[in-house]
Amino acid sequence: MISTNSEKIKNIITSTKSHGRPFDSIYFDHQRTGLNSKMNDLEASIGLEAVEAFWETFWTRHGFMKKMRDSVEGFEDVAWFSEEDEGNINCPHGFSITCKNEGDIEIIKNTFDKYKIHHKRNFGCIPTQHAAFADMGHALGDFPESEWAGLNGVHIGCHQYLSDADVDRICTAMKEGLSACRENSK
Predict the structure, then answer these.
(1) No. of H helices and E strands in the chain?
(2) Which fold has domain 52-184?
(3) The whole model's pTM is what?
């Protein structure tokens, strides 16, 4: 536990407890080295109840992820998506869209915003796109593929609390945004 009357120290400590992200940010923008130390005993005890429902939760989320992937079938010319190779089962954390043309990600983000769909940028390149790792000595351009994913990709959570209507709305928005990206590239 830390006690301070300094707003600056409070924000830095809170950031360090949240993977190094800026205070009050939910996005992956690591400005300092940090870790996930948000867990406390109360949260842990509540989380233990979820262990029994783990597989039900997993397969619900997995079903949402597959429905999202199926809905964008045919748009491989404009974006890369979360893929699940035969014989593998992906952890259904989120569904990722990474646009192939520079700037198209803004079309996707604007479409998601129009449909009130929460999205986050893809993680990005650790040594070049997160200030916390600047001491590694790399510069933008050292890892072009990873940097592209960070600048031109977003993901949507595949939470088990989504309704079928939520997933349908997400699929509609993805198809609308990807269609606009296709038109934009003509």
Answers:
(1) 7, 4
(2) Aspartate Aminotransferase, domain 1 (3.90.1150)
(3) 0.77
